[in-house]
Amino acid sequence: MDFVSIRIITGDVARLVDFYERATGVQASWSTQDFAELKTASATLAIASTRTVPLFAPDAARPSYNRSVIIEFLVDDVDGVHENLTGFVEDFVNKPTTMPWGNRSLLFRDPDGNLVNFFTPVSVEAIEKFAG
What we know:
Helix content is 20%, strand content 33%. By secondary structure, the chain is α+β, with helices and mostly antiparallel strands. The longest helix has 12 residues, at 13-24. It starts with a strand and ends with a helix.
């Protein structure tokens, strides 16, 4: 089994895609006006409209209800990314902070309130974990 993607359901696909394109520098590929994907080397962030939910099951997912998932991106320089996002991201949860497990993390919310973590490994152990 391979983990390939995470999908965010939103009421405004274009707004959320624009946010993630600007925040990550990754260009989205659009399948329809209701579905786009931002593909990285290791996983895909899919963004879909609430209009797609009934295709799975009515009311199976609702936008802006997440309070348990953090979407994480490995970046080369979290402090530099923080500088670049200042003035664009409206809701920083914290400034770059070195965590006990060795990552320097920047936590913020996307326009739908989903938590996003951009992090850079800084301890020897964390750097080794993400090497290669």
